[in-house]
Amino acid sequence: MLTRVKSAVAHFMGGAVAPSSDRFSSADLPLKWPYMRPDFLGLSTDEIECSADHVARPILILKETRRLPWATGYAEVINAGKSALNEDQACCEVLTVKRRPGASSTPSKATAKRRSSLPNGEGLARRESSQVSSAGLVFHYWALFDGHAGSGAALVASKLLQRHVVSQLQEVVDVVCNTTLLPPTLLGVESEQRGTPAAHRALTRAASLRGASGAPGSPAPRFFAEKRVPHESLVVGALENAFKEMDAQIEREKSRYNVSGGCTALVATFILGKLYVANAGDSRSIIIRNAEIIPMSTEFTPDSERQRLQFLGYMQPHLLGGEFTHLEFPRRIQRKEVGRRMLYRDFTMTGWAYKTIEDEDLRFPLIYGEGKKARVMATIGVTRGLGDHDLKVHDSNISIKPFLSCCPEVRVYNLTQYEHGADDVLVMATDGLWDVLSNEEVAESVTSFLANCDPDDLHRYTMAAQDLVMRARGVLRDRGWRITNDRLGSGDDISVYIIPLMYGNRQA
User: Fold this and answer.
1) Distance, CA of 236 to CA of 446 (rounded, Å)
2) Do 486 and 473 share a domain, yes or no?
3) How many domains does the chain contain in total?
């Protein structure tokens, strides 16, 4: 086992080891989409080829601000040779969730606002708000995907995840748009009660004890009134289900197409005056408001999700293949130490204690290493994302996918509660940026850059994104890419959105 793990670490590239097989290779299957950069960059084939220069590492930026809504800024750069292609992908669209035929429409604002269209006809620069109309619900969508062990999963997700978001919102659009009433517990059953205040709908204690309907013989007693489910919870649920459906589709697509590796996913949507940021992986998003930093995501790594992973290994030990232990120790245990007492912790603990070492503790730890070097089964450094269905421990049949969750954490920010200025922004970036720059450094960089720009210049956010990528990439010197104070720069792919929030106030 130790030789196997050493080999896995030696071949480690981009966060994961690609699965090996003597039977059938997915490389024999066709690609669903050829490798490309984000559509909104408008690059030619030659420009895409030139962007893959691992020595020059040119920074790509948005050429036309009208290609993205809200004058959104974007910049990216390829890695320093870690993988042949840029494994990051990005997508940004303005989408419409169509209302069901015959559904009532109760728009709260006027909907007749002028639209501007793009040369390619995609209509990304619409000026209307995320609002209700007879046609449906219009919302904004930004997404970043950081691939590993190939760019296939990231590319597929950049093309399809937004469709799943629309599909999931379609299920609840009529309820979400009707903000004057609480979401019904049962669709189509409580329509006659929806105009009744929630307090008046609560069952009496006697009726609760008899059952949900108060009729004799009801299957289960009901001891409490219905939970009040806010409308934003339906949007959160739609995003969570969209990630799960996307992950399932990637698994299905692998039987017909070459979909390599997996990817993290960071998505922001603007719906009815609120920003919803969904994150599965180790990308990060922060809001900078009046120089204040508001975290909008959490990185999911072997370190941050240690207890979840250990609990799964404890409950389903067969997933460990008899070669890993769910327990954590400060270091590898030597056989001569069996019978002695060593520090350890399990899924129930945040602190440490001592235990007597047994033979089974000699197995390789489920989580190996710490910080950015921590790996699940010595293979992958992220614990949430899409894809990786075929990922196995090197030279074994132990699947790692059961430990990797596709479910995102979703955070909500109400734009309407604040009047945002021109320098208040949402920053979204893959881990190539955050590996070398802290939240504070990013906020200082963006704030100082924007302060020196004309507030009416729509290019200011793209230029700020370019400056941020340049700071993280650094300059190529004799000892590699270097940034401020001669620190080592990022050798990873970097993708950055800078999204001005003041446009949300105008459209809310």
Assistant:
1) 29
2) yes
3) 2
